[in-house]
Every structure is written in C-alpha cells, then in structure tokens.
Specification:
Layout (H helix, E strand, L loop, with lengths): L1 H18 L16 E2 L1 H4 L6 E4 L2 E4 L20 E2 L17 E5 L3
Parallel strand pairs: 1-5, 2-4
Antiparallel strand pairs: 2-3, 3-5
C-alpha cells in the first residue's frame, strides 16, 4: 500500500511540474518565416499590430487595445520586448493572432 501511494504521489508531482512553465510563452510561438514585416508594416491605420520579442500580433480585437489607445504605455504599431509588458501579460491569452515576424526594413 505504501508503494502504491508513493507511485501515485510521484505521478501527481510529475503532472504538476509538466503543467508549469516560466510564463514566457512569446518565445514558443511558431512563426511563418515567409511573412516578414517591417515597422512600417505595423503602422497601418486599419488594424492594431504590435511586435513583441520579434513576433507580430494582431491586437485589433483584444480587450484594452485600440487604434488610438495606449495599453500600459504600449501603442499599436510598436515593437516591444517581453520585459516592457506587465508581468501579468506573459501568457498567450493576452496576445491576438500571430501575423508574422518582425524583420529589418
């Protein structure tokens, strides 16, 4: 019985650690290398695109974002490092669909 409880405990611990991450999901996003965008491409008047860590996201329909709105000091068309965003904004649910990657002009 002790062996069974020990194995059960170890399995539960493994599940807990498997579900943990460092909170920086931005680096894990798969980006199509063919869709390379410049900073000029981000500055469109009809959508709200931002680059975070080199990945371009469409924030147009995301809560708190807007074409003429500052979201925690970040605005549409900007390029930001992961460290600029609030710590609470580290998960993928805070970013819209991936549009492409940021490249040099």
């Amino acid at each position: 019985m002790k062996r069974f409880l020990l194995v059960l405990f170890l399995v539960l611990v493994l599940f807990v650690f498997a579900g943990c991450n460092n909170g920086n999901n931005v680096d894990k996003v798969m980006v199509d290398d063919n869709n390379c965008l410049s900073l000029n491409d981000l500055n469109r008047s009809d959508v709200c695109w931002i680059a975070v860590g080199g990945v371009v996201y469409d924030q147009t329909d995301m809560p708190g974002w807007g074409l003429n709105v500052s979201h925690h000091g970040c605005v549409c068309g900007g390029s930001y490092s992961v460290h600029v965003l609030p710590a609470s904004h580290s998960g993928p649910r805070y970013f819209g669909p991936v549009v492409g990657k940021l490249c040099k002009e």
